Amino acid sequence: MNGSMMQQPLLxxxxxxxxxxxxxxxxxxxxxxxxxxxxxxxxxLGARARRMANALAAHGVGLGDRVATLGxxxxxxxxxxxxVSGSGAVLHTLNPRLHPDQVVWIADHAExxxxxxxxxxxxxxxxxxxxxxxxxxxxxxxxxxxxxxxxAVPNLLCYEDLIDAHEPEFEWPTFxxxxxxxxxxxxxxxxxxxxxxxxxxxxxxxTYAIALPDSLxxxxxxxxxxxxxxxxxxxxxxxxxxxxVGAKLVFPGPFLDGKNLHELFESEGVxxxxxxxxxxxGLLAHVExxxxxxxxxxxxxxxxxxxxxxxxxxxxxxxxxxxxHAWGMTEMSPLGTACTxxxxxxxxxxxxxxxxxxxxxxxxxxxxxxxxxDEGQALPHDGQAAGELxxxxxxxxxxxxxxxxxxxxxxxxxxxxxxxxDVATIDADGFMQITDRSKDVIxxxxxxxxxxxxxxxxxxxxxxAMAACIAAPHPKWDERxxxxxxxxxxxxxxxxxxxxxYEGKIAKWWTPDDVVFIDAIPLGATGKxxxxxxxxxxxxxxxxxx
Length: 546
Ligand code: AMP
Hints:
The chain folds into 3 domains: 13-255, ANL, N-terminal domain (Rossmann fold, 3-Layer(aba) Sandwich), CATH 3.40.50; 323-329 and 337-360 and 367-437, Luciferase, domain 3; 442-537, GMP Synthetase, Chain A, domain 3. The model has no long low-confidence stretch (mean pLDDT 94). It has a 9-stranded mixed β-sheet, with helices on both faces. A 7-stranded mixed β-sheet has the order 7-6-5-3-4-8-9, with helices on both faces. The protein contains 15 helices and 26 strands. The longest helix is centred in the first third of the chain and has 17 residues, at 42-58. The protein is 27% helix and 25% strand. By secondary structure, it is an alpha/beta fold.
């Protein structure tokens, strides 16, 4: 017997319609590429998104067509989130930090029809315009007065001209909720990038999940500033969640340095932010150096790579900003876990609470997790056993775009799970902790050493700005940990002092065999440390004899 509730598809356009209707006066504030502040409301956003939907239709963009963006976090990008997906086309957010060859490869693979870009990326567009095969028009996300003169880009259109030329009357179409809505390519370090194709249903369900109190906790009383780029897994879903709950949104544009971010936090009364650890390093350094405070910011979500406990301590103890450690992947829309405490943890001493917060957290409802050993056997959730983390759920990928790479799932008792490539433990309370990426694992004498633990300890040293721990070849143990360190400007610390710093903090055999100091750790397009590059760089390094 079926239930007798209405069959209403879960569609992205309904998020915007809701925001317009119930939070029409709520503000969306953006720092534009030009540097000035733009300010309007959800009502304005809705009207302009509908004008853009009319413009897309007039340019022949239809159901399922891919529309690419190369854009910062800003209101025009937000309009495209809704105009493109809402009208049944697929929003393809390209990462502008990729090499132009990769951008061309991905745009061709996605068969993008139109490409929108912020003016910052004009040189990139000029470099690729003659090479991309399927793009019929390029749209500069600016007004007529800022349009580039005598540009060689063919079929170059102006965003504001498109808006002005079309009416705000547009009926968002209704279609199957499983229709594709947006596309993101993974920043995989090997092989060609692969596309994760989200649907309206997966996006709306993910939005409900991230808004929950024990998740990213978004509400109408919040002012949310996503530092995480809109080209990195849809800014972790915040542009959707803000509409769902009616939060004020603040977009930083390309100005992601500590000074600009802090100014925007203060001037707009930001309560919640979100980004990868590398961004927060710059912000904390600025705030520290200038003896500043956060007068409204109360929470920040940190994920994308492990948040060092030293960073959590700085935010929480010095600035009264609570850190929410979260974990996910492009293939998971992205949220999998968020680390909020259970009631029994609230009375624990601060250090013990911090140790729990350093874990990646508990699964949000909708995500199932298990860990398996090398033979695929399930491991216990005892906080000790570490194995590959498998996930399943309605916003987790079942296959890559165009079936690339075949069936990615592993099957366990007849059920398909997505293998994350992360190595993790899960404790009896359900808290998952990542110890490594499977390809970053250090295997010493057949035993795994967690590089993230080793990095977190190094990061707690006052002279260390950034630390990566990689496997270095070893004649006896196969691999041993090598610590690669970037010192803070003007700070001094020696190899021996750093090695001594590990004493009593971990099992002795986990201590790095050696330390190298370098000027900068290579970062990938989403701000993550590229340990594969470091491994290549130090593959011939001979470790000192123990
Ligand atoms: P991406 O798809 O580029 O977002 O990368 C996903 C990967 O980033 C995950 O599989 C993890 O290896 C890593 N990652 C994301 N969040 C965290 C976190 N909080 N702690 C450790 N690693 C993380």
